[in-house]
């Protein structure tokens, strides 16, 4: 009786935790995945009960309680992390553990009060084993206890056999839930089998397996990663035979194909097949429109669309109004948004969802990066950031991306504090940048700002600088501090524009601006003080500014959907650089075949017709009379899943360096062979 009582108690506790977790996270309850969740926690509970069946009563209680307690707190941490970052956390982001302690206070303060309801089952569990069970035990008479002791050994063997049989049946049922088409959402981004082997999409995995099982799968995939099955992916893309026009982009990929023909590594063979068979997007009427100009890309720390309010932030608003701007631009959050979204802005690849990709793969080389495209065009390339290497190893990352020189806060001589709440001034950063570029004839510069970084819940020099101006407007203190920091960012843009004008470079310089992510640490209800819509709906929290500005361009505001993923191919086309559009997961915003869709880190997507929620596998339409067919949704999901997987595999295998090196190696061999032949011929 003890074994099955323990199994039942643990199953009830874990399953109740899962139910409350789904309720507070606003996830669906009445769906097939809940059966899979129940079966999974039943398996976990039964295995635990079996392993502890020979232990005494007290140790068994303690072990089971600790497991349930860990599961409960893990669920709370995941709820808070998803609310704060936008995706569920993974052990793959452990490289940021040292940095996380800096903003732990903001993280906890961002919790919704009802997240603590997840602890209800574990409290009831504790009450049962410490009070109720004891009272029930006291009612047993001595004769029954003696009788129980006499049959204990015989009963234990029998109960273990029954439990093992039940476990085999449960494992069979769980396997059925993984493979059955009935239990598979037809428009889900990844299959349940694929997610079980590699939970690379944490939000979908949590929805399909439950938070407890996801945690175990995450540990399993971290300690013993599943063999990459991407090499077996069916590449169905076929290049269309197009009629040649004046806009046809011609690329000689014969050397690449020669390398591909001799490739023996399965992953590289798959990547060659994928990239070589992608369509080469044509040139368009904007090709070369900005050719020969300088370029400054600014990734703005925690800048959402509040930053383009003309009343409060005139400089950013002016660039938005007078340049090319996109009203439906988003900066999807992920586990390491600043570093990963900076990386994606430089190479137009999807970072690995459950890792701090920028740091983990900091030694990777990308010949096709934005820096290297401009290097090949003869530009002086530099990059700047006004903080230390504490979070991201930019000195290594930027250099390997192709930046001719990376300037960190120490080299720039900008004063900074090690106190988390204090951040350097972006105004000083722009002054240093201007001083460095004044003698550069043709330059490409990347700037990552920092002033508007969290926290907003405590006093700081930059947070208090203009705070009274915004408190007078009726905003709460956290939002007022955030806007105070944005004001310094806006001032820095004013300094940059003024400096470029004084140097006579404004007309010859293009400025691209985008936000790295929403302002972490501000609750949705705090942001809603400013916005006239609910930012918690359909990933609206992630809406950020995107601007391409030059003083000589005709202003235009587009309602197309975009992200930082599209920066490299768009800029490369506008500057008419020598690039291959097949190498990028993003697209040229001005291409006639632009998909006009934004993809989020968890696999969700949005366009003018609909918002697809990858976590729940459900789609919400702007107009119920204008919808997608199931086949169309599956096609979109297949395309984004392929882009993500191929981007991830390319990063993991340092693919682009491999191709570049292989082509160079072949060229050297050909040159050597030619020289040998010429030498023999002359002799």
Low-confidence stretches: 141-147
Strand sequence of the main sheet, in spatial order? 4-3-5-1-6-7-2-8
* Protein structure class: alpha/beta
Helix content: 40-55%
The CATH architecture of the largest domain can be named as: 3-Layer(aba) Sandwich
Rounded mean pLDDT score: 89
* Strand content range: 5-15%
The count of helical stretches stands at 26
* The level-1 CATH class of the largest domain: Alpha Beta
* Outline type: globular
Q: What distance lies between the first and last C-alpha atoms, to the nearest angstrom?
A: 95 Å
Largest sheet: 8 strands, mixed
Please give a handful of descriptors for the protein shown.
Alkaline Phosphatase, subunit A; 683 residues; alpha/beta; four-stranded antiparallel beta sheet; 9% strand
Can you put this structure into words, describing what you see?
By secondary structure, the protein is of the alpha/beta class. The protein folds into two domains: 2-223, no CATH class; 286-652, Alkaline Phosphatase, subunit A. Helix content is 49%, strand content 9%. It is built from 26 helices and twelve strands. It has helices at residues 2-24, 33-51, 57-85, 97-100, 104-109, 120-138, 142-179, 192-197, 202-209, 211-223, 254-261, 266-276, 314-322, 337-347, 357-360, 370-376, 394-401, 409-412, 426-437, 461-465, 467-471, 477-502, 524-527, 567-574, 630-652, 655-682, and strands at residues 294-300, 324-330, 380-385, 406-407, 443-448, 509-515, 546-549, 556-563, 598-599, 605-606, 610-613, 618-621. The strands form two sheets. The protein has an eight-stranded mixed sheet with strand order 4-3-5-1-6-7-2-8, with helices on both faces. Strands 9-10-11-12 form a four-stranded antiparallel sheet, with no helix packed on it. A hairpin with a 5-residue loop joins strand 9 and strand 10. Helix 1 (2-24) packs antiparallel against helix 6. It is globular and about 90 Å long. The N and C termini lie far apart (95 Å). The model is unreliable at 141-147 (pLDDT under 50).
């Amino acid at each position: 009786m003890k074994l099955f009582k323990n199994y039942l108690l643990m199953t009830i506790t874990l399953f109740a935790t899962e139910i409350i977790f789904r309720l507070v996270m606003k996830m669906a309850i009445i769906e097939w995945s809940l059966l899979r969740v129940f079966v999974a926690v039943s398996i976990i509970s039964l295995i635990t009960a079996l392993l502890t069946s020979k232990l005494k009563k007290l140790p068994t209680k303690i072990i089971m309680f600790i497991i349930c307690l860990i599961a409960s707190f893990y669920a709370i941490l995941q709820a808070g992390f998803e609310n704060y970052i936008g995706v569920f956390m993974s052990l793959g982001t452990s490289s940021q553990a040292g940095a996380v302690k800096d903003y732990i206070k903001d993280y906890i303060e961002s919790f919704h009060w009802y997240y603590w309801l997840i602890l209800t089952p574990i409290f009831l569990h504790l009450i049962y084993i410490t009070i109720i069970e004891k009272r029930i035990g006291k009612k047993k008479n001595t004769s029954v206890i003696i009788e129980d002791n006499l049959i204990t050994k015989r009963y234990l063997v029998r109960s273990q056999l029954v439990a093992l049989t039940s476990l085999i049946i449960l494992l069979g049922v769980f396997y059925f839930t993984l493979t059955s088409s009935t239990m598979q959402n037809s428009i889900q981004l990844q299959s349940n089998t694929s997610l079980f082997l590699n939970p690379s999409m944490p939000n979908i995995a949590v929805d399909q397996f439950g938070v407890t099982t996801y945690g175990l799968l995450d540990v399993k995939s971290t300690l013993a990663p599943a063999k990459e099955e991407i090499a077996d992916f069916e590449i169905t893309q076929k290049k269309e035979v197009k009629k040649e026009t004046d806009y046809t982009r011609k690329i000689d990929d014969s050397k690449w194909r020669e390398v591909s023909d001799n490739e023996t590594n399965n992953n590289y063979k798959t990547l060659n097949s994928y990239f070589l068979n992608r369509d080469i997007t044509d040139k368009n009427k904007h090709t070369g429109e900005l050719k020969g100009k300088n370029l400054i890309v600014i990734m703005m720390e925690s800048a959402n669309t509040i930053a383009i309010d003309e009343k409060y932030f005139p400089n950013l608003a002016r660039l938005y109004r007078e340049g090319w701007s996109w009203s439906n631009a988003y900066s999807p959050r992920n586990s390491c948004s600043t570093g990963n979204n900076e990386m994606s802005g430089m190479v137009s690849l999807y970072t690995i969802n459950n890792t701090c990709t920028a740091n983990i793969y900091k030694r990777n080389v990308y010949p096709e990066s934005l820096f290297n495209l401009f290097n090949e065009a003869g530009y002086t390339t530099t990059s700047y950031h006004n903080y230390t290497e504490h979070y991201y190893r930019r000195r290594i990352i930027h250099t390997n991306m192709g930046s001719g020189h990376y300037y960190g806060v120490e080299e720039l001589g900008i004063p900074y504090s090690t106190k988390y709440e204090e951040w350097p001034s972006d105004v000083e950063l722009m002054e240093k940048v201007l001083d460095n570029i004044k003698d550069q004839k043709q330059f490409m510069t990347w700037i990552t700002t920092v002033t508007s970084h969290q926290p907003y819940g405590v006093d700081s020099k930059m947070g208090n600088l203009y705070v009274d101006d915004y408190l007078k407007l009726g905003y709460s203190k956290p939002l007022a501090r955030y806007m105070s920091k944005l004001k310094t960012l806006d001032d820095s843009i004013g300094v940059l524009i003024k400096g470029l004008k004084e140097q006579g470079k404004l007309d010859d310089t293009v400025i691209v601006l985008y936000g790295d992510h929403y302002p972490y640490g501000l609750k949705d209800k705090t942001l809603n003080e400013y916005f006239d819509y609910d930012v918690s709906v359909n990933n609206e929290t992630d809406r950020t500014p995107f601007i391409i500005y030059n003083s000589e361009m005709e202003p235009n505001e587009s309602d197309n959907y975009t992200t930082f993923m599209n920066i490299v191919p768009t800029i490369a086309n506008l500057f008419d650089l020598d690039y291959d559009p097949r190498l990028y997961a993003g697209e040229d915003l001005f291409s006639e075949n632009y998909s006009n869709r934004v993809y989020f880190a968890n696999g969700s997507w949005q366009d003018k017709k609909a918002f697809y929620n990858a976590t729940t596998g459900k789609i919400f339409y702007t107009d119920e009379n204008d919808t997608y067919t199931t086949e169309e949704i599956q096609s979109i999901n297949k395309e984004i899943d392929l882009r993500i997987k191929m981007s991830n595999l390319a990063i993991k295998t340092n693919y682009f360096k491999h191709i570049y090196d292989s082509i160079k190696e072949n060229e050297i061999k050909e040159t050597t062979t030619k020289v040998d032949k010429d030498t023999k011929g002359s002799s």
